[in-house]
Amino acid sequence: MATLLKYYKLSFVFTIICLGLAVWYGWESTGTLSGTMSLLWIVIVLSVLEISLSFDNAVVNASVLKDMSDIWQRRFLTWGIAFAVFGMRVVFPLAIVAIAAGLGPMETINLSLNDPQEYERIVSSAHVGIAGFGGAFLAMVGLKFFFDLDKDIHWVRVIEERLSKVAALPAAEIALLLLVMWGISTLLNPADALTFLVSGILGLVTFIAVEGINTMLEMKEEAAKLQGAVVRSGLGGFLYLNVLDASFSFDGVIGAFALSNNMIVIALGLSIGAMFVRSMTIHLVKQGTLAQYRFLEHGAFYAIIVLGGIMLLSAKFHIPETITGLIGATLIGISLWWSVRHNRVNGTEEVATPAE
């Protein structure tokens, strides 16, 4: 219990503050106990859904964070939460409405508070662009993990060994993603197809840019080490993690409107979830869970590819978030079970991989 409190204490405190704000806002806006409790319940449900659907996010975050210094791990938990909570849960939907409706910041805030139905309509109308950008970025994150010549641990060997070999062909994963995006765009009307393709390409460019920044910083760090310096900045990983978090949260922000179209209620509920994802990430890193369960990362990255694909397809088809979450949880659960199985027999007999 003490160990859990060590990692989740800040999240619990943050949760209590958000729930307190929800009670205060509910009473101020409805003036009734039933209205206040109804609003509080929606905040709780939103936070639980965000936490339960984001475990794959935490695992992937941990795979990046484990290679960063302690100071940058702390900055991800503190500075990064400001971007995750206020940037994606509050500013992002407001920015969509401001751009789509041609409104100023104050007009947009006024619209979100006084005409939530119109606010929801405008945010939802931007879904095609969001699906293209977020889907492309997440798909590249997942594909990059498997299209790796140096990858020597394979879970589904029949697939992963072939993808690792194909990685010898430069930008093979980019070509694959572009073909998928083009195929989906053919299902859309011309205006939506253009929006989808442009957004998808921007998502791809963002991934390449963040990867490029990360590579340059790593090269500088290596050069500094050769000269006797030991400081690791971790800035590239920090930027990468925050863009990754943003991509994960796109669907959550849009899907939250199924429960409420009140900006404040959505922000409070999703912010609690975002905080717990941060704590889960640190917990996984500090406990060495990824090293202990060797296929857990694989399950998370398969889940990310599925999530990226579902986001891309959502430009044309409505796919409930519950299905997405169940697929992700199932893949991670199977990879965890397979890791436990591997550990039990490790050193005594070889375990066949799932699809071998």
Account of the 3D structure:
With 356 residues, this protein is mainly alpha-helical. It contains 15 helices and no strands. It has helices at residues 2-30, 33-52, 55-65, 70-101, 105-114, 116-125, 127-146, 157-166, 172-185, 190-226, 235-255, 263-286, 289-292, 296-313, 321-345.
Descriptive labels:
mainly alpha, globular, 356 residues
Could you tell me the strand content as a percent range?
under 5%
Number of strands: 0
Largest sheet: none
**Helix segment tally:** 15
Low-confidence stretches: 228-232, 348-356
Shape: globular
The helix/strand series, from N terminus to C terminus, equals HHHHHHHHHHHHHHH
* Percent range of helical residues: over 70%
What would you report as the Rg, rounded to the nearest angstrom? Answer: 21 Å
By helix and strand content, what is the structural category?
Answer: mainly alpha
Give a quick summary of the entry.
By secondary structure, this protein is mainly α. It has 15 helices and no strands.
Blueprint (SSEs and pairs):
Elements: H1 2-30, H2 33-52, H3 55-65, H4 70-101, H5 105-114, H6 116-125, H7 127-146, H8 157-166, H9 172-185, H10 190-226, H11 235-255, H12 263-286, H13 289-292, H14 296-313, H15 321-345
Helix pairs in contact: 1-2, 1-12, 2-12, 3-11, 3-12, 3-14, 4-5, 4-11, 4-12, 5-6, 7-9, 7-10, 7-11, 7-14, 9-10, 10-11, 14-15
